[in-house]
Every structure is written in structure tokens, then in C-alpha cells.
Request: fold
Amino acid sequence: MEVISSFYLFLEILGTVAFAISGTVVGINHKLDIFGILVMSVITAVGGGIFRDLLLGATPPTALKSPFFIVISIIASIVAMLVALIIKSRREALSIFKAARFYNNLLLVSDAIGLGIFTVLGIDAGIAHGYSQNIFFIVFLGVLTGVGGGMIRDVIANQVPMIFRENIYALPCIIGGILYVSLQSVISHNLALFISVIFIVLIRIISEQRKLNLPRIEY
Reply:
């Protein structure tokens, strides 16, 4: 039980750091000040979990009762900002094009990792609250946990949330969530979790690299 608990803590920390970095990158790209970047980082990291807890009736939300993950996101954001300053100081050796590509790739990978981890952790939260038989609800919880923080981040950045415009964003969470629920009755819990996270991360990254999109209606 202690091993499982430690594994979950590791995943939550990793997901928090990943989303905090993605929030920091968006904040830097939109030229926010340091406070604005930190706020963007924290909201991206814990926003989805707050939505999840409110739907489950867990109030106040875990992130507000115990600020551990808020502190983690702030630390991750500060480190990311320091790295950004180092890159800026070496701009002569790193072309603007390469710097922009680095930030775009960092945003993509960190956001994908956060999506994968928090989607499955959101599903587990629904199962822990006794909703294991309601597949629609727990998958919805997972998707909301995965995309919720990013939606708030994008709204604050005054842009249409990626879930509504980006190359296949929420779809990997939905499919990965269903895959996770299905695999739990066939293989071990941790293996099902690992497979589902990797699936979501890879599909998100591949869809972005290959510019795969859902159909749009144009006029």
C-alpha cells in the first residue's frame, strides 16, 4: 500500500511540474510579469483538480486545503523562468528560431505529460468516491482534471482554449480514459495506468507534430 501511495505521489508531482511548466511557457510567451507567470503556472497545475474536487463534493478542494502542490508548481515555475533567462542570455549562440522551437516543444511535451497523468488520476478519484460503475462520469472527471487547468490558463491568456482549437487535444484523454477503465479488469492497476498515460501523451504529441485535426466547418 505504501508503494502504491508513493507511486501516486510521484505521478501527482510529475503532473504538477509538467503543467506548471506549460503555464510558465504560456505566461512568458504572453509577456506577463513574474507574478502573472506564477499565477498562470499555479492555475494550470491545480485548476483541473479543483474542478474535479468540486464535482465530487470534496470541499474545500485538496489543492487549497494542503498547498503542497501549489508550492511545487511555484518552484517548478521559478526554475523554468531561470532556464528562460539563461536561454535569453545566450541568445547570440541560439537563434530566435531555435529558441521559439524550444519553447513550443517544451509547451507541447509538458502539457501532454500533464494531460496523461491527470486524466488517469481524475478517473481514480472518481472510482475512490464510489462511482466505479458510472463509466461516463469517471471518464468525464478524468478529462476535466486533465484539461481544466489548461482551459483556465488559455482564457486568462485571452485565447481560445486548446481543447477547442488544437490538434486533437481532448480526444486522447477520452480514449485513454476509456482504455484505462477497460484495462483495469484485465491487467494490474499500475500497468493499466502506465499504458494509458503513455497512450495519451504519444497521441497528443503525434497529433501536434503531424498537424492532425478533427473536421472543421468553414464558410
